[in-house]
Amino acid sequence: MSRITVDLTGKVAFITGGGSGIGRGFGLQMAACGAAVIVTDLNGQAADRVAAEIVAAGGQALALPVDVADAAALDVAVAAGIARFGQIDFLFANAGVLGPADYLDITPDDWDLVMDVNIKGVALTCRAVATHMMERKQGRILMTASYNGVRAGAHVIPYRVSKAAVLMYTRCLAMVMAPYGVTVNAICPGVTLTPMQLSYAEETAAEQGITRDAYLADRAARIPMGQFTEIDDLTGLAQFLVSDSARLITGQAIAPDGGVMTSS
């Protein structure tokens, strides 16, 4: 596929959930475009591995273990990133968890975990960089929502609810940050074969008594285009949304079909 070419030399990206999946893809692509990358993840070793990949390819990176549900830890990580690189230009609030698939399996603790990470964690992450971006009167904030945030379903209900909340939070924060020249957007990936999604596929296939490959083939057949979203598709979109070309695109979510859902 063709790629948007964006020179991000001198820019700095802060990524949560950067140790794997979409977050890792964002980090590697931002680094390939010249940005320094602050890779954070609950799994500190995973963050270290991605940072090492970036450095091995000639880039700059800092790895930090961070729980996005911990406001103090986020403040410390943001301060450490600024101390190392001098600024934060792009924020990718990407960390997320899936939670139980079946409604009757969901416990109060499951609700707490999913909401703490997927929406409270997003809000706390954005708050940790907001003052810095306001003072500089520039910045790009990008959140990972999901097509499930706009699509009802009988499974992974806490996840769907949390991602719907991310979309509303995107629109609200966009209004707060716009006077400071900071854009705020969310992407809504379709089914993307991240480690989290593959783990879900493995569990679901086992429950159905079929192989994971059979489950994935059936799942792909029910997608209108017959294929899963690729992480490269999302990183290309991210590149555009942090570029100067996207300076007036704010408070919007990019739908899985490429359409734009604008806020009022």
In which order are the strands of the major sheet placed?
A: 3-2-1-4-5-6-7-8
Please give the largest β-sheet.
Answer: 8 strands, mixed
Q: Please bin the fraction of helical residues.
A: 40-55%
Proper CATH architecture? 3-Layer(aba) Sandwich
Strand percentage: 5-15%
Mean pLDDT: 88
Q: What is the domain tally?
A: 1
CATH superfamily: NAD(P)-binding Rossmann-like Domain
Any key phrases for this structure?
about 260 residues; alpha/beta; Rossmann fold; 8 helices; 8 strands; about 15% strand
Structure description:
The protein has 264 residues and is of the alpha/beta class. The protein has a single domain (12-192, 229-256), classed as Rossmann fold, CATH 3.40.50.720. Helices cover 48% and strands 14% of the residues. It has an eight-stranded mixed beta sheet with strand order 3-2-1-4-5-6-7-8, with helices on both faces. Helix 4 links the parallel strand 4 (90-93) and strand 5 (139-144). The longest helix is centred in the middle third of the chain and has 29 residues, at 108-136. It is globular. The two termini are 33 Å apart.
What does the secondary structure layout of this molecule look like, with pairings?
Layout: E1 12-15, H1 21-32, E2 36-41, H2 44-56, E3 61-65, H3 71-85, E4 90-93, H4 108-136, E5 139-144, H5 157-177, E6 182-187, H6 195-208, H7 212-221, H8 231-242, E7 252-254, E8 260-262
Parallel strand pairs: 1-2, 1-4, 2-3, 4-5, 5-6, 6-7
Antiparallel strand pairs: 7-8
Helix pairs in contact: 1-2, 1-8, 3-4, 4-5, 6-7
